[in-house]
Specification:
By secondary structure, this protein is mostly helical. About 60% of the residues lie in helices and about 5% in strands.
């Protein structure tokens, strides 16, 4: 019997594999575009569901959900396969920078000098640093590890939540797809999993310890995540524990204490990390000094869909279910509990919107991550009626219309099947020739004792593609851009001074832009800030002497006569 189930499962996934190969393979352009992909996907779903109904006597509604979610989750996971590449250069703007920052936890072994670990997202780089425990692993393994983190942690969060609400693996697949609509980053989901697994609202001290542990992680993550563990625990309390005959104060003090102490622990954790890392404290507040570009709430060249437009589609189905369910449960769920839940959602929504419009905020919904997680938790608890009831029997039970359930499934599935596509073709031969020329060009500079600043592609040093070039830790592109966008004058003034005093015998970077763009272009404001603080100053004191084919890198050396 077990063998038959395994064989059936393998046969069942064949259409999903064929669909994935078609989209990600050499003929992916034949069904490129959301409409074509959607039509092909729907035909496949209807056909397979019809076969299950006809030959396995299953009901159409649950069978269709299993097929839709299984195939969409399979495809979404498969879209990460092209990221497991042996190509030595960054696959996207900041992709390979992540491995460099992860390597800093082992800087003395890798670079023979102590380099402070990252100011930005230390928790993420701590997770990505694990492969560096084994020496000389190639870059493809680090990429494989990151793919594993994306898939396993996201799916794990779905399973932990499913277990809490007494649901199964089909729900976990839906949660997996829902979280990727942001996407919600895996280092946030670590604290989410910890809270969902460990918090027991009626066990104050156990839950407090879990909140404090998760808040330590939040403190070495992002400042807007500091209150997240406390808020999640407080909302779980509001969902699962009825007021009964308690006074409002005696009921409310428990979630309030968790929220207050959790947020405080996150601040303490950040302070300890600052002292331990040795980084200047002023570099940790970049989020508070960056410009806010409110027009990006609406369709723009940076985010053609617009933050609000896409957010409405992501939120609407689950929000409708939640609103109806909470209204019908108004006698079962005390008004204080409902008010607290909606207040928590509102706070995280507002914070997410503000972070999303920050310059450099990206071109998707990933900065709405904490809000999406909380909505997922609240919505799923109420959908499955896993909440503490003030009274047990209330008329007006609600079973969502099947069309509404399909709507809640369709949106994350649409986001999944319209992602990915035919992967780019990397020119390994050209990159190899470029690396040979780069090493040849840098060798005499190193022999003369000159310092070489790699602004871009620093993973070439991390993984030994560039030999015998001592690391200059300052001014890596990802962190330099953060300082540019936040207007950190001490940092930028020191950068300009180092350029003026010709601290570096050579600079390796991408072609430095000097053209201002404005909001008419994607990431135009980011480009203009970079041009002002980096592109123009570099070109003022350095000039291009070599461009390396296949690397998208340029070698700059000092000008004999600076431009100013």
């Amino acid at each position: 019997m077990r063998t038959r189930k395994i064989l059936f499962s393998l046969v069942f996934m064949i259409p999903a594999a064929l669909y994935t190969l078609l989209l990600l393979g050499p003929y992916g352009n034949l069904i490129d575009g959301p409409r074509r992909r959607g039509v092909v996907f729907m035909v496949m779903i209807i056909t397979i569901t019809g076969l299950l109904v006809r030959f396995r006597k299953q009901q159409w509604f649950p069978a269709s959900l299993v097929v839709i979610l299984s195939y969409a989750a399979f495809y979404k996971a498969a879209t990460f396969i092209p990221d497991i590449s042996t190509f030595p250069l960054s696959l996207s703007w900041s992709e390979a920078s992540r491995y460099y920052y992860a390597s800093l936890f082992f800087s003395e072994r890798l670079y023979h000098l102590h380099v402070p670990p990252s100011v930005l997202h230390p928790s993420r780089y701590l997770m990505q640093a694990i492969p560096f425990l084994i020496q000389d692993l190639p870059i493809w393994f680090h990429r494989l590890w990151q793919v594993f983190l994306w898939i396993s942690v996201t799916l794990g969060a779905g399973f932990v939540l499913g277990r809490r609400i007494k649901s199964g693996w089909v729900f976990a697949l839906w949660a997996f797809l829902f979280l990727f609509q942001g996407p919600v980053y895996y280092h946030l989901l670590v604290m989410v999993i910890l809270v969902l697994w460990g918090v027991r609202p009626r066990q104050f001290w156990r839950s407090l310890l879990v909140v404090l542990a998760a808040s330590v992680w939040a403190g070495i993550s992002r400042v807007n995540w500091f209150p997240v563990p406390g808020i999640l625990a407080a909302v779980l309390y509001l969902i699962e524990v009825p007021v009964e005959k308690k006074s409002l104060w005696s009921y409310a003090w428990t979630p309030a204490v968790w929220g207050f102490l959790g947020t405080g622990m996150a601040f303490i954790s950040q302070r300890v990390y600052i002292l331990w890392s040795g980084n200047p404290p002023g570099q940790f507040g970049s989020s508070f000094t960056s410009d806010l570009l409110w027009y990006r709430l609406y369709p723009s060249p940076t985010y053609p869909g617009g933050i609000l437009n896409n957010l409405v589609w992501v939120l609407l189905p689950l929000l409708l279910i939640l609103i109806v369910r909470m209204w019908l449960a108004r006698r079962q769920v005390h008004w204080l509990r409902q008010a607290g839940i909606w207040a928590a959602l509102a706070v995280l929504f507002v914070v997410g919107v503000i972070v999303s419009v920050k310059i450099g905020g990206g071109s998707n919904l990933h900065n709405m991550d904490a809000f999406l997680v909380l909505l997922l938790i609240v919505g799923s608890h109420f959908y499955y009626e896993q909440y503490g009831k003030e009274v047990e029997s209330v008329s007006g039970s609600f079973k969502p219309f099947k069309v509404l359930v399909y709507f809640a499934v369709a949106i994350p599935v649409f986001f999944a099947i319209t992602s990915g596509g035919r992967p780019p073709v990397w020119n390994f031969e050209s990159a190899e020739k470029g690396l040979a020329l780069l090493n040849e060009s840098l060798d005499p500079i190193v022999q003369a004792g000159g310092k070489i600043l790699f602004i871009d592609q620093r993973q070439l040093l991390t993984f030994g593609y560039v030999k015998d070039v001592p690391l200059v830790p300052d001014y890596e592109v990802l962190f330099l851009m953060e300082m540019v966008m936040s207007g950190n004058r001490p940092y930028l003034d020191q950068f300009h001074t180092d350029l003026k005093e010709i601290r570096f015998a050579a600079i390796v970077s991408g072609e430095q832009p000097t053209t201002h763009q404005g909001s008419a272009y994607a990431f135009g404001e980011e480009n203009d800030a970079w041009v002002k603080e980096v592109g123009e100053p570099v070109r003022c004191y350095y000039h291009k002497v070599e461009e390396f084919e296949g690397l998208n890198l340029v070698l700059y050396v000092p000008r004999e006569t600076p431009c100013r």
